[in-house]
């Protein structure tokens, strides 16, 4: 009996020692050595155990391993691999800078390529590098991100002059388009011929066509997540271009080297400026024209080794004017977007990453027409104030847990009309504004069950509430109600609930 017990303990001891073996976390940030910008998707792998993780969109990684000495490989396609031997006897923070690498090869033949869809839970996600987008043929010399997306499977457009894109049968308004986490409601210039995104200012973009993870919500068809460059923190650089219809210029550089940087990128069409000297001021259509412009700007500042602050913004407008002297008719149609994002990143500890975001979005459309003494104006718009708190938790190399909460305050101004003739103003009702609040909370885990099976499971709960001031007009044609006694409207005070909806999204 004693011999059997000793034999059993000898078998059990290695398992118990493995279970009680101390574990530590290697974490840090990975950047581009030449620009100082964060690297998305860089791999950090422990060679001896063949376990690793990839950096998130902010360049952060966290790898938890048993105590020991490991050869750590850091690599990303197009960059020189880094190898470092690290004795993991405590929690260690280690940052890496990757340098670009030119690879020369002999002639190769590609017979087949394994689909990444069998190795990742991001089945419907496609990431595009701006450098790849710029290599494609373009219309009038203008690199267009949205037109590039239509070359992907499942993404279609209805042709030139049609704003937006359609993903797997969904409508244009069913695509969530984010620019540095701020929603963009109208992503096109020139009535749909060009997008509002200046490729010189864009760092990367991801399109999720299906299986949208729980950290996104509010749309049915797809999510297009676009991130702007942070700016070169090493040296001042500039680039630009002159196209057939527009010119652009970008300048970026450090404010304090390796601590803060900026990027400013602008674009404007100039056909209206070039053709103006050749148009007879006395011609019937003198004063007519069209132009659009964009301005992107971003600042970032490293407060501490664990805290970084980002401030980014976009402002763009289309302006179309038409004038006919013979009929004394003038019209103006300006429209465009403005967004702003304030983001604070904090590495709380070696396994927990915090991203706090405040956003502002404003879209406006206006149509004005004047003929003789008659004036008519139609305007509409959307204004959002939002806040997001996002956490990334890496308990070990098998799990990547994301959880957080979001809030958006909406202000809709649909079809406000103003008209007058001479000194007489028409009573078309006052300006109408609709107010609502949108809340969401989510949690998801992307984890490996074993070496051949990975699961992305998440849950999102959304709540939408329409609030006053609001007037609901009732149908009083019911014969059971006498007209003098029947109310014809119900008024809701400021902040009072009109209706609400809750949805659970597994």
Write up what this structure looks like.
The chain is mainly beta. The chain has 4 helices and 32 strands. The chain has helices at residues 2-19, 130-133, 145-149, 271-275; strands at residues 23-32, 43-46, 51-54, 60-66, 68-75, 82-88, 92-93, 96-98, 125-129, 155-156, 166-167, 175-179, 182-183, 188-189, 194-195, 202-208, 222-228, 237-242, 246-256, 260-269, 289-302, 307-324, 329-347, 352-371, 374-393, 399-421, 424-425, 434-450, 453-467, 470-473, 489-492, 497-505. The strands form 7 sheets. Strands 18, 19, 20, 21, 22, 23, 24, 25, 26, 27, 28, 29 and 32 form a 13-stranded antiparallel beta sheet that branches. A 5-stranded mixed beta sheet has the order 9-16-17-12-13. Strands 1, 4, 7 and 8 form a 4-stranded mixed beta sheet that branches.
In short:
This protein has four helices and 32 strands.
How many helix segments? 4
Largest sheet: 13 strands, antiparallel
Return residue spans where pLDDT drops below 50 for at least 5 consecutive residues: 5-19
Determine the fraction of residues in helical runs and give it as a percent range.
Answer: under 10%
Gross morphology: globular
**Through-space gap between termini:** 54 Å
